[in-house]
């Protein structure tokens, strides 16, 4: 009897508590005013004030640009030493080299001469144990870009409004291969404590941030071959939304190693017909193309809010006017034949810029020298730009004939080439364009030699595995 009375009392207590809680909630919600809408961010304009590059054409913006315009090529034959298999027996290295179907690559020239990447400075310093090659490339290019922009702030508030957006496609595969070998040989205790920091793609942005004390956004996009484009576009948005006044942005890659080359060989993506003629192997838009040439390097821009740049008297190369993104939603490596993904990315960049297709003077195409990809992009450009393309007024080229395909760094390096085309009034050429694809006709034809011309608006395309697309639209300095 007592237990029944206790149970009944507990039920009544729970009911009263529930009613009381409901009444309090109703009273609170009826008396609390709704939040005002969030503030609408003021659209801030973004300009490019600094450039830095590490490329197969050379280290440094001046060297790379001059060689590009001159029609020089950064592709060469691969040697067994390029496979970075120093810990393996000579017989294993020789066998791996023999098995590769593609034996050409676009490799950054190293040394202590002008235009060469100084490994002693960037990879053999006291801090090199925590840095792999793709990180070192980012530090080298960032230093050049920051000095070019004359932006090396010492005040805390300036550092807090400066951020970093540097991505990569693959990371350090050679470190992974070396570490896997240690497991196979039961030498796991010799694994470097820096192994993880050396392979993490965001560590390129992290090291740049730590080197200069930048406390703004610290961001790393990883979108395969569209990484560089997305990194610059994302950084632009961060400035537009007020997250930063200055951003160090771009992409970096160091994938010339046994496993990376072998992986792309197995996917049948690389050029194989021209192993005996390495400088002719990357041939965007040409009938003889049979795959891309794997490359490495880094491209970095200093992006800045326009009034911030003007106030300090910074040199302005160009304005970042539009950033378009899309997804193919079709296949892991192949674009759909209708090119709708590319069309959407370019259209969205134009819409954001407030420009019409006939106002674009130059397009730096993604065209990697693959049979399908080049044709799909060319048809997408022809579809979107219509009469402007076929009249010959739109100038088109792919600089991958000179640099190979830099994977995660490609979009950033090619965006810099687009900016330099505007700044210098020169459209760079497409190398090895001997017999253009039959889809090119009338006035629609890629450049096969550099062309001096006024360029007020330039588009840079980047498309990656997984169907991810980015288009950046730059215009001349305001």
TrEMBL record:
Keyword line: Acyltransferase, Fatty acid biosynthesis, Fatty acid metabolism, Lipid biosynthesis, Lipid metabolism, Transferase
Origin: domain of life: Eukaryota
A GO cellular component entry from the record: mitochondrion
GO MF entry, a single one: 3-oxoacyl-[acyl-carrier-protein] synthase activity
InterPro entries noted in UniProt: 3-oxoacyl-ACP_synth-2, Beta-ketoacyl_synthase, Ketoacyl_synth_AS, Ketoacyl_synth_C, Ketoacyl_synth_N, PKS_Beta-ketoAc_synthase_dom, Thiolase-like
Keyword set includes Disulfide bond: no
Pathway per the UniProt entry: Lipid metabolism; fatty acid biosynthesis
Gene3D superfamilies recorded: 3.40.47.10
Its EC number(s): 2.3.1.41
Family affiliation: Belongs to the thiolase-like superfamily. Beta-ketoacyl-ACP synthases family.
Name the UniProt record assigns to this protein: 3-oxoacyl-[acyl-carrier-protein] synthase, mitochondrial
Annotated organism of origin: Acorus gramineus (Dwarf sweet flag)
């Amino acid at each position: 009897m007592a237990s029944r009375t206790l149970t009944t009392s507990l039920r009544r207590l729970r009911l009263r508590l529930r009613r009381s809680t409901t009444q309090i909630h109703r009273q609170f919600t009826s008396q609390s005013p709704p939040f005002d809408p969030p503030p609408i961010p003021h659209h801030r304009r973004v300009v490019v004030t600094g450039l830095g590059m590490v490329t197969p054409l050379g280290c440094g913006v001046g060297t790379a640009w001059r060689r590009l315009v001159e029609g020089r090529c950064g592709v060469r034959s691969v040697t067994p030493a390029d496979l970075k298999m120093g810990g393996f027996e000579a017989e294993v290295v020789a066998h791996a080299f023999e098995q590769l179907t593609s034996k050409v690559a676009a490799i950054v020239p190293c040394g202590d001469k002008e235009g060469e990447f100084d490994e002693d400075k960037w990879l053999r310093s006291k801090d090199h144990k925590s840095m792999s090659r793709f990180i070192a490339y980012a530090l080298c290019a960032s230093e050049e870009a920051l000095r070019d922009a004359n932006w090396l702030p010492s005040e805390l508030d300036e550092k807090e409004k400066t951020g970093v957006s540097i991505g990569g496609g693959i990371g350090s595969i050679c470190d992974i291969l070396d570490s896997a070998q240690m497991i196979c040989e039961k030498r796991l205790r010799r694994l470097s404590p820096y192994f993880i920091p050396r392979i993490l793609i965001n560590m390129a942005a992290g090291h740049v941030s730590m080197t200069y004390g930048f406390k703004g956004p610290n961001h790393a996009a990883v979108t395969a071959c569209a990484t560089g484009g997305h990194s610059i576009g994302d950084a632009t948005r961060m400035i537009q939304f007020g997250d930063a006044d200055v951003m160090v942005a771009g992409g970096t890659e160091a994938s010339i190693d046994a496993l990376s080359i072998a992986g792309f060989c197995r996917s049948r993506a690389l050029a194989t017909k021209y192993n005996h003629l390495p400088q002719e192997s990357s041939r965007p838009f040409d009938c003889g193309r049979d795959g891309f040439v794997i490359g490495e390097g880094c491209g970095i821009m200093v992006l800045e809010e326009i009034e911030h740049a003007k106030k300090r008297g910074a040199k302005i190369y160009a304005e970042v006017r539009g950033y378009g993104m899309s997804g193919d939603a079709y296949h892991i490596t192949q674009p759909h034949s209708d090119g709708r993904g590319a069309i959407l990315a370019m259209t969205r960049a134009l819409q954001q810029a407030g420009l019409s297709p006939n106002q674009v003077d130059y397009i730096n195409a993604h065209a990697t020298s693959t049979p399908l990809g080049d044709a799909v992009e060319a048809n997408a450009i022809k579809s979107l730009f219509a009469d402007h393309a076929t009249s010959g007024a739109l100038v088109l080229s792919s600089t991958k004939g000179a640099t190979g395909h830099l994977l995660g760094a490609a979009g950033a390096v090619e965006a810099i080439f687009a900016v330099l085309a505007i700044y210098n009034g020169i459209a760079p050429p497409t190398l090895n364009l001997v017999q253009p694809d039959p889809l090119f006709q009338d006035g629609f034809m890629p450049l096969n030699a550099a062309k001096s011309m006024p360029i007020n608006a330039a588009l840079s395309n980047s498309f990656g595995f997984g169907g991810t697309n980015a288009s950046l639209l730059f215009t001349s300095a305001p």
